[in-house]
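Hey everyone, long-time lurker, first post.

I ran two proteins through the pipeline my lab uses and got sequence/structure pairs for each. Pasting them in order. The first:
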Amino acid sequence: MNVLKENNWISVSYDASNKHLRATWKPESADMPEDDFRAINSFYVTCFQHHTITSFLIDSREFNFPISPEAQTWVGEEIIPAVINLGLSRLAFMMSKEFIAQLSIEQTMEEGGNVPFQIKYFSDLDEAQAWCFAAK
């Protein structure tokens, strides 16, 4: 895995052999400003534009940021449409330990409406990776 971004909130890596992007949220995400959340999501789009990605695993077990309704709408209107035609076939989420954060993730994905890729939520990392890698 090649690390593409690392900061206080998240680590984003790319596995070219599996055409796989992985984002791992950190516990400090609880203190993240909303502008940083938006910048990270915009960075995802950049990754899709510069790399061949068929699967994306978002490890949100330590994601503690409650996504505001406005940010949920923004992701649904700006981010999801931007990646729809860029090759993604599977999007996996590791479930957040924090209930409100997990609920806001699910609501954010609902904002995207019908998408041409599969979305699945996992509690087991090995299962999530296996499912993602089957997308090659």
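...and the second, right after it:
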Amino acid sequence: MQLLDYWPENNILALPEPVSKALLNHLIEPFGDEQSAHEFWNEYPSTIIIIEPKDSNSLLTLVGEGVKYLITSGVEFHEYTQSLGQGYQVNLSIVNDAGNGVYLVFRDDINLTLLGVIDD
């Protein structure tokens, strides 16, 4: 699992390169350019959570309740889901009135219920 609470720089994301590029483009799109997106993130930090196929139930049980809450928000209360290609998707959940969000990235074939992140 990878957890970022800052603007992701090049090659920092634990994703295949085409998926990483798709996610960055997705983050920039609402703002028109990377500088505007970066400025928004500096003022209203969001969180990117990447759940990787190798993440196990035992690993995910070690994360704190705050992270579990963010993951649950990304799964159960998301604004939308968008495909990033190569079997990955991103869910966005807005967590406060200022616009801070959680971008939950995971493969389509990961069952978050079985990993114990969310309830049935």
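Reply from user beta_strand_b:
Welcome! Quick read of the second one: Residues 17-28 form the longest helix (12 residues). The chain has one domain: 2-107.
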